[in-house]
Design goal:
135 residues; 4-stranded antiparallel sheet; two-stranded antiparallel ribbon
Amino acid sequence: MGIKYQKIGYKYQLAENAHFDTPITGFRINLKYVTLETGGNLVVFKGYQWDGASGPTLDDNTNMRGSLVHDVLYQILREEELTQEYRKIADKVLFQILREDGMPWWRSKYYYWGVRIGGGPSADPKISAEIYEAP
């Protein structure tokens, strides 16, 4: 029997559970590696994979947490657990975490405007990775 697979380029895997406060409240969302609690606490479980910051960027200690949370929130949007109105909030959460982690203001604004201008397709539920088959 054959297999089906996707070519998804993950670079990082979470080594332990991580918790983040978000302004997204009133929802209880449970995905395989993610829980968003009604009070806004986002829990990302050990084993979650993400690709770091997208675009012409360098991954470093100032953008690892932000890229993780942003990827998780966009996944929640793609899976239609939140409406697309929350995309801007996800982008603001990215900016906030980048600043908390010591990224210079000008660079964090570059990231923020990058996702505001070019991030829409990554949050779109209609966009998914192509599925391939092997014998």
